[in-house]
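Protocol step 4 of 5: obtain the predicted structure for the target chain.
Materials: sequence only (see below). No template structures provided, no constraints applied. The aim of this step is simply to have a reference model before the mutagenesis design in step 5. Sequence pasted as it appears in the construct record:
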Amino acid sequence: MLPLAELPKLHGLPETATAILDGLDVFAVILDRDLRAIYANDVARRSETPTELGLLRTIEFQHRARQVLETGVHSHRDPHPDDPGAPVRTHVIRVEQEFLVVIAEDLGAAQRLTAMRRDFIANVSHELKTPIAAVGLLAEAVKEAADDPELVREFAASLVKESKRLADLSRDIIQLSEAQSTLRPEHLEEVDLRTVVDEEVDAHESFAERRGVDLIFIDSSNPKRTAAIQGRASAISSSVANILSNAIRHSPAGASVRIRIAHKKRHFTVTITDTGPGIPAEHLERIFERFYRVDGARSREDGGTGLGLSIARHSLRAHGGDVTVRSTPGEGSRFTLSFPLNDIPKKKRAKRVKRTRKALQQLTDTKGRA
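Step 4 output (structure tokens):
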């Protein structure tokens, strides 16, 4: 079979048919009775992925194609949603008794998205099931132990804990949904990153104190440069809050968490460093996945929902930034939040203005002499 890019544009075929195929934004070819490609539309010619072309060579497809040639009944095949190895949707249609039109569409990305949604729903259901069941059981236990104040207090304390877990999970699901949504112009406002970090450090002081952790704030930013971006203040605040609370939660009593802000070239960075147990290398690529936990039992005991890091990454990327992590087991982890800035330092701005004025003056002088 010739490479599709080398096939002639027309091969004795009706011009209308080829014009229609060229107008499609999916892979389309025409095969002869020997199942050889004799025409390919522009998408097929430009295709750099062998997925659709490889399909034409499979025994299963060739059997289908010959059936269509013999019967004239067109064949449509959707990929199985649970088989990522076969992501192509195909239509095979007989034309003028001796040709086959094959239209193929790679649905791999759609399959992955569907799988992610299905997994997310399953994970949410699983995460909600335990606290909901616990709340029901504890409510009944409180009712049964009405004559025993000691038991009522014990069950009520557990009821409060499970209720908080439900509330935290509901809040994080809403935040994740917002983080994954597109930032609309009407939702944007000027957000001062220094102020956001200051407020979150202050807001986490009591939590850190309860855990026996010291918060150390270091401002290494350039006071002459702005730290403002256009974005959604609540989303940026939740990103910083999730990373900071995660660092506090995983730090042992007596340890410290350092928060450093700085300007680095055209970016404003927030670096949060803890001295916790660290993250093994095999987990680093996955910790930003929804509900992924390095130590599930410990995370639930500490009150984590498994969504905080995912919320942070989605929020930052929606604002054009990102969050990265470096970690050494036994020594701790360092998360770096990076926000792109469009500002120009005052000195550089003044130099640009001076150069522009000089260039304009030279241009004016030249015209005057002319």
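Step 4 remarks: The CA atoms of residues 128 and 307 lie 13 Å apart. DSSP finds 13 helices and twelve strands in the chain.
Proceed to step 5.
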